[in-house]
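Q: Got a minute? One more chain.
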Amino acid sequence: MKRRRLLKGLAGLGVAGGIGYWLSRDYWDGFIRNPCFQTVPEELKQIELWQTIWKDVDTSQVWDCHVHTVGLGESGSGIWVNPKMQSRFHPIQLAQFKFYLNASCINSTEQADTAFLSRLKLLVNDMPKGFKTMLFAFDYHYDSNGQPNKNLSTFYVPNEYSAKLASQSPEHFEWVASIHPYRPDAIDELEKAKAQGARAVKWLPPAQNMDPMSGRCVAFYKKMEQLDIPLICHAGTEKAVQGSDTQELGNPLRLRTALDNGVKVVVAHCASLGKNQDLDSSRLTMTDSFDLFVRMMSEYPQNMYGEISAILQINRHPRKLKFLLENTDLHSRLLNGSDYPLPAVMPLISVRRLIKSQLLNKKWLQDLNMIRQYNALLFDFAVKRLLSFNGHHFSSKVFETKSFFSS
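A: Always. Here it is, folded:
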């Protein structure tokens, strides 16, 4: 891949601004493209790393709670991708699209749905028995009148398709619905999703254009609370999915309306990227989104949770990871997800950077970089299990998420 294309793709993923720093500090692990090697060799399952990461973990309880369903809809799945993503007139989005295809090991756009599914099943089969991934549906961007706007949508994954994949492969998958609260049929769709086994609802406010603080969402929240279905909601700045660039909708403080209505809210990525207005301050000071998230975790100990996908990425400051590791009182409310296929976008995670940030023992470097060439899900899980700061690790319960989503 040419350097220009690399930088454009990383710009679309929100990390190009730090690429010079990343390279100058020798943070590059040597990978640009995912080689998509097949099944993890048996000899790698005998090494110390493998034994360490699975020690004291009940694998029957391990559900990766943040996995995107990827495809192009050629199989009749109903998946739709904005044509801008494949247009040379939109070079940043095109480069981003190519990164996603490579991360998902999709070699042909004519069989994207099938290739994604085959690869993901292969990755899950590499894991110990009981491991599952929770497949996300993804709704359109909606306008204030409750109408979908395809021009401002990046992609669409129907609830029906994610539900179908989970029902056809229950040993591999659970599923998560995506329902825009401004839809006229939102509550009906929520009841339908729950009946079809949805484990949660996923929102990405900056891309989908919903305001979690709006009174328009209250009826939806009340039904969520009644059905006991959690909300997995992105918070902080969004870079991986483009929409109308309404970044303030990702403010963690805007989730109070959902929390006050009894909804269990899981904050994706622990709001670990960007800044938002401090709505509690008369000056509306721009404040690190992560710090607002931490404030909310203290304010809502009964029904607010953090989800730790993407926190390894090079555009996240190490101090946030260190805070989460050290504050062990939060671990009972942290849930693991990978944000797959992003861990397979190779430049996004630097093992060397984690080592130099004193978050990872350097003895794991070679084995982790070997594993990531075979299995991005395993790599993401392994790095998080091996993280350490001042003697603190993420507890095994952070990874045993089944009990939260199946209660």
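A: The longest strand covers residues 63-68.
Q: Perfect, thanks.
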